[in-house]
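[job 0412] stage=complex_fold ligand=(R)-mevalonate status=START
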Amino acid sequence: MPNAISGFSKLSKSEKIEWLLDSYFTNKEAARMLVKQYWNSNEQLQKLHDEFIENTITNYYLPLGVAPNFKINDRLYTIPMAIEESSVVAAASKAAKFWLNRGGFKAEVISTTKIGQVHFIYKGDFNQLKTFFENVKFKLISDTADITKNMERRGGGIVDIELKNKSDDLDNYYQLHATFETLDAMGANFINSCLEQFATTFKSEAEKNLEGDLSIVMSILSNYVPNCLVKAEVSCKIEDLKSKDISKPEVFAKKFKQAVNIAEVEPYRAVTHNKGIMNGIDAVVLATGNDFRAVEAGVHAYAARNGKYSSLTHCSIDNDTFRFWIEIPLALGTVGGLTSLHPLVKFSLELLEKPAAKDLMQIVAVAGLAQNFAALKSLTTTGIQEGHMKMHLMNILNQFEATTKEKTQIVEHFKTNIVTHSAVVEAIENLRK
Ligand code: MEV
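[job 0412] stage=complex_fold status=DONE, emitting structure tokens
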């Protein structure tokens, strides 16, 4: 076991690596080479990445793929996706192509506000607190003028601040519950800066003008954004669902809807169903430099908003029309954060023709819906493994360090055979005999 280390963050990058090698690795040279192999030869680019976080030792690559042919509100997009799971981009591309000639995807942003809270403890009379809040509310807002002036110039800013009495849930617990419009910025820094200023003003005014003891616990935005909502949908006549792998569209539509209904009522299935949606969502969120952890947390909370975890997508069959849609909260930014820093994020945003945050919300929601459509289409027809294992084949071949020639022969073989892990191993062994 290595000794604890102090001052690690102050070591140079090479010193950090040497400490790691001395402390944890037997084959130091191999580990050193591995770490350095992933450094970018462009020193400036490497330095940029080094400075994104603390204690960077190297880069961790994920593939950046693209899914073309996404028709969204009659406009064509090629969607960038950063993800390691082999079948995701292929599934998105297939779903995009499927809907391309069936009207494409329709998307709309329903709302765009975000929430931040100052959590505080107050031991005193609630009516006095209420009066104090009403008197101080204007000052809370005016004291943030330096922080909000640019955002206000663009049409955003603080929408409202409410006092919330939470003392039934937790003794003496209250909140300043603030609503923000952050336009094209995800807004975390803006919101948190405003909240910290609210807290400072609120505390100092309370010391002068409020009886009872008031102490601020914390000030932070919420990643639960049910009022930053986007909807995306596809629809067509049931008979138009007919395609190469859907020979009986009525049967397909009915089974597809049953699969969605199951995810609406059964949490075990809903989690996996929504995980498939997040395959598409996270990949685009990551490619565009947004915070996928924030999106994940907010989306899953929304999926449980009625007290039971449920599907994020829904399906209807009305007379002869099939409709499939998603409604999700997405707090995204197309300015600020990594958007102007990470070269591949800049590339991705340019590929999407420099979307506003509202456009990106629509694109991301569509990516989630498309992913879910592809998954349910496979699950209710061929089963998921056929497509999944075909895509996973290359990973297995790489595990066995197959040569290019071996790969070509084996991929050919599996064009007409079912891919399973053991079948691939057997094929490699046979080939190498
Ligand atoms: C795999 O990453 C995602 C799926 O399990 C989603 C689903 O079951 O709907 C295929």
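The chain has four domains: 8-50, 64-111+226-382, 114-221, 387-432.
[job 0412] exit 0
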